[in-house]
Specification:
Shape: elongated
Strand content: under 5%
Oligomer: single chain
Order of helices and strands: HHHH
Distance between the termini: 26 Å
Largest sheet: none
Structural class: mainly alpha
Length: 113
């Protein structure tokens, strides 16, 4: 650590749950605890969690697929086998995203505990 860059040390007392929450939030945002605290102090909003950014991109892609499915269904005024298959694919992608997010959160929590 470069002590010249950050020459001042501040000590804060936290409860166990506050410390766990701080460590979890820092970890989820991809920062060390000290960097997370500095970021919170110098910015109006806390950093967005890494998995949120990835999740937003993936959900946006799925939303695009849903728009294409809706356009096809509205244009042809029917739901055919192609549309049904696409809807099932979108449903599976959403299930997979939810599962991945839950697995990552469980891993984070188990590391802290």
């Amino acid at each position: 650590m470069n002590h010249r860059k950050f020459p001042h040390k501040v000590s804060v007392r936290l409860s166990d749950s506050e410390k766990e929450k701080l460590e979890l939030n820092a970890s989820l945002s991809g920062l060390k605890v000290s960097a997370y605290i500095r970021h919170i102090m110098s910015n109006a909003r806390p950093p967005i969690h890494k998995f949120d950014q990835t999740l937003v991109v993936q959900v946006a892609k799925i939303g695009n697929n849903l728009n294409q499915i809706a356009k096809h269904a509205n244009t042809h005024k029917t739901i055919d086998g192609i549309v049904l298959k696409q809807m099932l694919d979108v449903n599976k992608k959403l299930d997979d995203l939810i599962s991945q997010k839950l697995i990552r959160e469980v891993k984070h929590v188990s590391k802290i505990l």
